[in-house]
Design brief:
Layout: H1 2-7, H2 11-20, H3 33-42, H4 52-55, E1 69-70, E2 74-79, H5 85-98, E3 111-115, E4 121-125, H6 131-138, E5 146-152, H7 159-170, E6 175-180, H8 189-198, E7 211-214, H9 223-237, E8 240-241, E9 248-257, E10 261-270, E11 273-274, E12 278-281, E13 284-287, E14 290-292, E15 298-299, E16 301-302, E17 307-311, E18 322-326, H10 329-349, H11 356-364, E19 370-377, H12 380-392, E20 399-407, H13 412-420, E21 424-429, H14 435-444, E22 447-451, H15 454-472
Parallel strand pairs: 2-4, 2-5, 5-6, 6-7, 19-20, 19-21, 21-22
Antiparallel strand pairs: 1-8, 3-4, 9-10, 9-18, 10-17, 11-16, 12-13, 12-18, 14-15, 14-17
Helix pairs in contact: 11-15, 12-15, 13-14
This protein binds guanosine-5'-diphosphate.
């Protein structure tokens, strides 16, 4: 019926045409993509598929310049492990308490808002590292206004630092460099400046355009100056929002809480969010029953750049999903259902990643040649042992590749990597996926297999591959 309407032909005629090509359908049956292509062609139409997100995007009207007021910048801290991301976030969080706001920041909700001595505010995304940043960018969401790239002065610009810089540049997010640990005897901040200069990133004190501040995240030395520089950067961005409209924003994180149901941290980017509002985010919706800030205080509303946790959604949206306010619950439900249905159809259509069983099947059809594994384990020794064993399993018909092998829990980044690789799959040894990674894997259709006996892992892949090869013969 929908298709007939789109093509402006009588639905009976469409059903008749379908029957003539051997497809028996009822008026409200959903057709697969191939059938739609075929029948549309019959009627002289060509088809183009728009993603569920695009099709169901909710557009908000633009604001009038006069309604806009300044909003706090949203800042992410990125850098190499151990260079001091957590220490900096903790220091800022704790001194802000001393700076005299009622109630300390008592809970990690994924973001927090601090007030500086002069009353200006900064919102920090409290998920150190660029995993959240990447995850959100993958969903096309730009939450961060400014990135602080932190580099330890007793070390150098590391691969992760470079990656973080590349992410910020790709997202067109201005960077402020924080050269950390200058209290340490071996600190050599000029070496960091030089490392950066070699990457064509000339800092201000060397005549370049990038702001840079020496700090000690441990003692707090230079942190005030760093905040000053962040605010200066923010001023140039002229960040504004209209607090007097329905809220829109992004999901920072979401989880299921035993006592409270689904709990989502949201960051308002425009408008004001109120208790009682009907929120739709991704494929979930609900009326906001209660809101709390990072100080665990119950609040009635959240203004632009203010992070809050909300209770009342009927599921846990993904980090980076945008949220909107609907007039009625029915409207929200309809959009959510439609998005869910389209998501299901789309995942059926575009399964990029495969289970072992499916791989066996594809191999039997002679159309499969590569198995891309991501190996995560608790020790480097296990990573190497597994990687070696897996690679040796390669045959003429199937090449087993380990595209990434590392120590640590299975992260969202691993899932993302697997989802972009051809037939990507994750093997974990004595490690588990994080809750967020698990959820992302479900959404992206990435298979994660975990083991605690090395031979089980090898046996599994061997057996599966042998099974595949048997089928080819
Ligand atoms: P992250 O992995 O980037 O989050 O790094 P952390 O904040 O966990 O810091 C790693 C280690 O460096 C910890 O042992 C910190 O105590 C230490 N550290 C962080 N900042 C400083 C600093 O400014 N001076 C000194 N001496 N140690 C620091």
């Amino acid at each position: 019926s929908e298709l007939a309407t789109m093509m402006d032909v009588p639905v009976t005629k469409l059903i008749g045409t379908l029957m003539s090509i051997g497809v028996m359908v009822s008026i409200n049956q959903r057709l697969d993509a191939e059938t739609i292509n075929m029948v549309a062609e019959e009627f002289g139409f060509s088809t183009e598929y728009v993603s569920a997100e695009v099709q169901n995007a909710i557009t908000e009207e633009a604001d009038d310049e006069v309604d806009l007021v300044e909003r706090a910048p949203i800042v992410t801290v990125m850098g190499h492990v151990d260079h001091g991301k957590t220490s900096l976030l903790d220091y800022v969080r704790n001194t802000n308490v001393i700076a005299g706001e009622a109630g300390g920041i008592t809970q990690h909700i994924g973001a927090y808002n601090v007030k500086l001595a002069d009353g200006r505010r900064i919102t920090f995304l409290d998920t150190p590292g660029h995993e959240a940043f990447t995850a959100m960018r993958a969903r096309g969401t730009q939450v961060t206004d400014i990135a602080i790239i932190i580099i330890a002065a007793d070390d150098s610009v590391m691969p992760t630092t470079k990656e973080a810089i590349a992410h910020a540049q790709a997202a067109n997010v201005p960077m402020v460099f924080a050269i950390n640990k200058i209290d340490k005897p071996g600190a050599n901040p000029d070496k960091i400046r030089e490392d950066l200069a070699q990457m064509n990133l000339l800092v201000e004190d060397w005549g370049g355009k990038y702001q840079c501040q020496e700090i000690s995240a441990k003692s707090g030395l230079g942190v005030d100056e760093l905040m000053e520089k962040v605010l200066l950067e923010a001023e140039m961005l002229e960040l504004k929002a209209n607090p007097n409209r329905k809220a829109t924003g992004s999901i920072i994180e979401a989880s299921l809480d035993k006592g409270r149901g689904f709990v989502s941290t949201v960051l308002v980017s425009n408008g004001t969010l109120h208790v009682g509002d009907i929120v739709i985010a991704g494929t979930y919706y609900g009326r906001v029953k209660a809101m709390f800030n990072e100080r665990n205080q119950r609040v009635q509303q959240a203004a632009p750049s203010e992070p809050v946790i909300i209770l009342g959604l009927n599921g846990a949206p993904s980090a980076g999903d945008s949220f909107h306010i609907m007039e009625t619950e029915q409207e929200a439900r309809e959009i959510a259902n439609k998005r869910q249905q389209l998501q299901r159809e789309q995942s059926l259509r575009t399964t990029k990643t495969l289970s072992l069983e499916e791989i066996a099947h594809r191999i039997a059809l002679g159309e499969f040649h590569m198995l891309n594994l991501i190996v995560k384990a608790d020790t480097q020794g296990s990573v190497e042992a597994l990687t070696d064993s897996f690679i040796k399993l390669s045959t003429e018909k199937v090449e087993v590749k380990v595209i990434q092998g590392a120590v640590g829990a299975i992260s969202e980044n691993d899932v993302m990597l697997a989802s972009t690789a051809e037939n990507g799959m994750i093997v974990g040894f004595n490690v588990r996926p994080s809750v967020a990674a698990k959820k992302l894997a479900e959404n992206e259709g990435v298979e994660i297999n975990t083991y605690s006996v090395i031979y089980d892992a090898i046996d599994d892949i061997t057996a599966a591959m042998e099974g595949m090869l048997d089928k080819i013969k």
